[in-house]
Amino acid sequence: MKIISAVFHSSSPDLATCPESGLPEFAFIGRSNVGKSSLINTLTREAGLAKVSRVPGKTRLINFFTINNTWSLVDLPGYGYAKVAKKERSSFSSFVAEYLRRRPNLLGTFVLIDCRLGPQKLDLEFLHWMVGCGLPFVIVFTKADKLTDKAAQKNVEAFLAAMREISEEQPAFVLTSAKLETGRSELLDLIASAMAEDAESPG
Hints:
By secondary structure, the chain is an alpha/beta fold. It has one domain (6-198): Rossmann fold, CATH 3.40.50. It has 5 helices and 7 strands. The longest helix is centred in the middle third of the chain and has 17 residues, at 86-102.
């Protein structure tokens, strides 16, 4: 897939105000400071499309971007940011969960994991919830350029081992670097394949 255009469409604080759209959607979510905005900008090759912040938890809305006028990239609020009141964190989690469970045109979710770290409880809890809901996802390991190939592989294998406690099937995963564009083509191929499969499905 080649991205020709990528434009911001709208932001929504909850499912009820999400734009009505027939376009297939692909959501991106992860812990705060996982490099989500940088990866989105690399994926679209639009440097300022998603706002990169040094302050974790900056994204507190569901942000929609229209890609090639044929699909939507959805930037979801990060989970686990510490400088937000617990009550507010709960409300964010609630509307994100509602979007992931009930958005009819959502074809898949890319769950971003920092490959510099060992398996983190928050990430595993979120993925356990995704598996329990039967929601399709791909694990995206970020910041691969920050480690040696051997160290990155070791952390990926440790995370996948932890996932075996959650899911019998090994989830699809991609190792990425926003800086080096590692994994960019793989992510776009996954999106293109999901769209083609959806177009062929009856109804």
